[in-house]
Amino acid sequence: MDRERFEEIVARAVQDLPAEFQERMDNIDVVVEEFPSARQLKSTNVPKTDTLLGLYEGVPITERHSSYGLTLPDKITIFQFPIEAICTSDDGIAKEVQKVVIHEIAHHFGISDDRLDELEKDSPL
After folding, report:
1. Considering the entire predicted model, what is its pTM?
2. Is residue 29 within 8 Å of 73, Cβ to Cβ?
3. Which residue segments constitute the domains of the chain, with CATH numbers given?
4. How many Å apart are CA 125 and CA 104, to the nearest integer?
5. pLDDT of 30-50, one tens digit each?
6. Residues 11-45, buried b or exposed e (16+ Cβ, 10 A)?
């Protein structure tokens, strides 16, 4: 899939978030990169046998204090090639992107990976 089409899928996933989430998203950029950098991989606890599909870098809303301001935006990076590698169709890519965007937005709202794992296990989807 070309980069432009992939970016459109990511933008659609963000646009499709419920309004109550979009209204509360603050000072955040969502970008696409081909692969995670060595620095990004090192900053996570992702085992070498796993793939990093997305990454949230910033200060979660729940940890911001009154002194938070004049700060660079938080950043969510969606990694195109790792997502494409685990999907077998354009529809599969779109579904995976949506899942990754939701996961990373949850970090923006202060939800940990452990809690997200619990919620995903309890989800009927």
Report:
1. 0.87
2. yes
3. 3-122 (3.30.2010.20)
4. 18
5. 999 999 998 998 888 787 778
6. eebbeeeeeeeeeebeebebebeeebeeebeeeee
